[in-house]
Amino acid sequence: MESSITEAPVKFTEEIPDVIPILPLRETVVFPETVTPLAVGQERSVRLIDDVLHKDKMVGLVSIKRPEVEVAGPDDVHQIGTAAIIHKMLKVPDGSLRILVQGVKRIRVVDYQQTEPYLVARVEVLEDKVEVTREVEALSRNLQNIFTKIIGLVPYLPEELQMAVSNVEDPSALCYLIASAMKIKTEEKQELLEELDVEKRLRRLTVILNRELEVFELGSKIQSEVQSEMDKTQREYFLRQQMKAIQEELGEVDEITAEVNELRTKIDELKLPEEVDKQARRELDRLSKLQPAAAEYSVIRTYLDWLITIPWDRGTEDILDIERAQRILDEDHYDLEKVKNRILEYLSVAKLKKDMAGPILCFVGPPGVGKTSLGHSIARALGRKFIRISVGGVRDEAEIRGHRRTYIGAMPGTIIRAIRDSDSNNPVFMIDEVDKLGADFRGDPSSALLEVLDPEQHFSFRDHYLDLPYDLSKVLFIATANILDPVPPALRDRMEVIELSGYTEEEKINIAKKYLIKKQTEANGLDPKRITFTDKAILKIIQDFTREAGLRNLEREIGSVCRKVAREIAEGKKGKFNITEKAVLKYLGKKRFFSEARRMTSEPGVATGLAWTPNGGDIIFIEATSMPGNGRLTLTGQLGDIMKESGQASLSWVRSHSGELGIPDDYFQKNDIHVHVPAGAIPKDGPSAGVTMTTALASLAMGEPVHSNVSTTGEVTLSGRVMPIGGVKEKVLAARRAGLDTVVLPRENEKDLDDIPEKLRKEMKFVLADEIHDVLKAALANGSLFAGRNTAAKTASAKKPAKQKAAKKATKKTAAGSARKASTKASVSKISRKPGGKSKAVSRVAARNRAGKPVSR
Predict the structure, then answer these.
(1) Which residues participate in catalysis according to the annotation?
(2) Beta strand 386-390 with 428-432: parallel, antiparallel or unpaired?
(3) Peptide bond into 117 cis (omega under 30)
(4) What is the pLDDT of residues 139-176, one digit of tens each?
(5) pLDDT tens digit sequence for 694-726
(6) DSSP character string of 815-835
(7) N- or C-end of the chain: fewer Cβ atoms within 10 A?
């Protein structure tokens, strides 16, 4: 049943009978002094209306408490309702009635006289409690104003209602009129009907109307915005249609069609691979059916841009001039013969075989040896474009393979992006820092690189964004790393590893003169004719101000000198600047690195060892001391487990040979031994310090100091055998930087000496040891104690009889007081091997793996 205002109520003056029929109303409340249409459908309600119309037309209207009740009884209706007169009745074909009732008085049901065939009750009239005050008048006017605003916002309220409300002076009647007109909850209408105090009823109705006004205002605002947007869309649509009609009339095409046609033309011109062409045309057809405002439009447009700009079949032609390539490589880099030869070999094969796939190289070496700059030089020598990406710290697999197009802001991975930027399908592609790749919950980038760097797979590399195969077989990939240990074995197996060792002092001097000084002179705006560096000045910078395998710090120090010279020139100083040793001290200050070997080994119990680190080779000192105790061994210096085991093995060998070494039998029972490796804040590990630990313990127990110019390296066994180690060249260079001229090596590392520059081999002395006795004989000051022992220790110079005889003659002529020195020199002879001799250089990586975890400073 719904209520609406159909006509003005007629003033009723008759008395309300004490007993009247009760008509239950479902979700409807009829107020006094209002006219309301009702629909009557139940059979007993129809009968009630018929009976009332034949009598006084008076009926009681009460609301049902629960709408779900089908047949309402006395307990299912409210006690307070309205006595009403039936003005009109209309029968409809389905048997129900439509009646028009006018509320007369508010009544309360006292008790029910009958329930069948319909409810009849005894009722009493409830009068309003009203006191006309200024507050009541103010509430009435405020209510009228609010209702006027609502009428302007609500379409179902006629404007005539505003006039009717403004003409009502009785506050009670005003409440009834407004409440009956508003579509508010039935419970709220019943609450207003039951309120006898007119002032309270006005206040309650004011609260309800304010709430409804807020809702209507918000709805009006939303409707206005929606309507405005619809109007704008319709206007744009009409304008587009008009523009389309004008363009058709002029023989032109619209913007969307022009864009699609342009893309189609580009696709036709590119002659893409079959699968790519098919995918591009499929996406283009989808694009042509979309409006620019569609969310998918920009996604497809961006995807097509990528397909068009990627160089599917565009590349550079290799310059297969081997002499030119050799000249360019020599111009850009000093030495590095392994790398140069490998590139020249590739060019030679490419000259013979046109469809050769690009190699996959991996340059491994300390920082600053020129790994990255080699990539530029190789690209220049081949006539190719060069691109570089750094994967250091990358933890997301999508950085390599890209994101799928389902994600917002998706794009290809770094591989495809770099190829697109180079605009060539055969560039020199450098992947820097592969040993610093990470992995987390987002995936493992190193696993994604397996497909990129696999010659059997990368001809059909599939990026997640493109979802199309791309041929990477023509790309020359070059990976770089400082160490190979962190690189997963599967990835390492796919690359051809080329090691770049550190530079000797002579090599650094030549590189500085040829490249670094020129570069820094230009970088600091100096005239090359006004500044020169002497060889001694460069050597002093190398020895006293840098300690590295590469060249970065050397270049920084040269740059620092150039900047200070530039300042003097800017201040007005004239003439040329010749940088000598004194000038180096003037510009760079006091020396920063000192050779501690001679000072450290002046007392028994201290030996100099050699270590391999990711930054090149280095020297370490191993100190041993004794104190009264019961034979306990203490190892300190933040040593790893392998190095601690080497210390235990060294002590066991020295104790088992104490009689042979002239050590008292009870020395180790009465003394505790403490072995310490300085630089305690730096972790150290690996077995190659075993020989040095044995030397330090023997020196301590025998009371014999170690030669200050001798360094040792090698793994020692309990039986006294000296086992091979890795990183020979780096360790030899470290010994040379530290001012040591004699190196004791395992004999099995003799083949690694071919990697050492010939000049350095002539200047330094190498002792090849099979057993620990050979080491002690060369390292200890009183090495003649072991001269009578028949060992296999031989120096490389022993292969030259003439030099050996000369050494024997010199020994015979030496005075008795110099016997110790002569004995030492006899066992520490020079090695001078010609390049290309019988022994071949082997991979230091394999040797390093055999040696275990490297000692790291």
Answers:
(1) 688, 731
(2) parallel
(3) yes
(4) 888 888 888 888 888 877 887 787 888 888 888 888 88
(5) 999 999 999 889 988 899 999 999 999 999 998
(6) -GGGHHHHHHHHHS-B----T
(7) N
